[in-house]
Specification:
Length: 235
């Protein structure tokens, strides 16, 4: 299945540089089920996962409504949305039509300048059309786990940065470093999700961890057989 996925600037750069091959997202909650208290592999034929709701009832993950809890599957093609701007021909002014060039904040050499000095403002990643995406991720593995169960190797695969002083602290990048990739990932996670109720590292939420094969091209330019959309589910 083809679907978009939002990436921050650091994660776009990590993917372009070949450092990032995993990504974690909090498990979505469904109205009427309350907090998810347990996840596991389903023992029902034809189902991959099941979860226990606040009333300790198990629900299999194949029904179209419950499938929203776990939105990724092996073989999915995810086109990355990132902060961007479309510029018009000749005057290079922002435009929503007749775009001749797309600039990406993650790699634009003028990204750190203010909008006036740069000559154009940025547009939110959520508004990036499919046709302007430059990164495509083919999902190769899907796991469900608690956030704090991430290993050191998996933290490295999440794309956290390391230099001669140590692993980057994303909460205080200019003042200190972390001793391990896992600790660095904790700061990265909290810099993105720390203010969301129940989603901080200390809350140890359930997450879906996907591994992927990155392709530096638009999803519609993927060579076969890399892009083989999964068959649609039937009721």
């Amino acid at each position: 299945m083809d679907k978009p996925i939002l990436f921050s600037g650091p994660m776009v750069r990590a993917t372009l540089n070949g450092r990032k091959t995993q990504d974690r997202r909090t498990i979505k909650r469904l109205a009427g089920f309350g907090p998810i208290t347990e996840f596991g592999t389903s023992d029902t034929a034809g189902y991959d996962w099941h979860f226990r709701d606040a009333c300790k009832r198990w629900h299999d993950l194949r029904d179209s409504r419950l499938r929203k809890v776990l939105p990724y599957a092996i073989g999915d093609a995810l086109w990355v949305q990132e902060t961007w701007q479309g510029l018009s021909f000749g005057d290079y002014l922002p435009t929503k039509s007749s775009v001749c060039e797309v600039r990406y904040a993650a790699t634009d050499p003028c990204a750190d300048l203010d909008a006036e000095a740069r000559g154009y403002p940025w547009r939110s990643s959520i508004h990036m059309p499919r046709e302007f995406s430059r990164l495509t991720l083919i999902v190769t593995d899907v796991r469900v786990q608690r956030l704090q169960d991430i290993s050191e190797a998996d933290a490295v695969a999440e794309g956290v940065e390391c230099d001669s002083d140590g692993w980057r602290d994303y909460l205080m990048p200019s003042t200190q470093c972390c001793q391990t990739a896992r600790e660095s990932y904790r700061t990265l996670w909290d810099s993105i999700n720390g203010k969301r109720p129940g989603c901080a590292w200390a809350d140890n939420p359930w997450v879906v961890a996907i591994s992927f094969e990155p392709h530096r091209c638009n999803i519609d330019a993927l060579p076969a057989p890399a892009h083989q959309p999964a068959a649609q589910e039937t009721a």
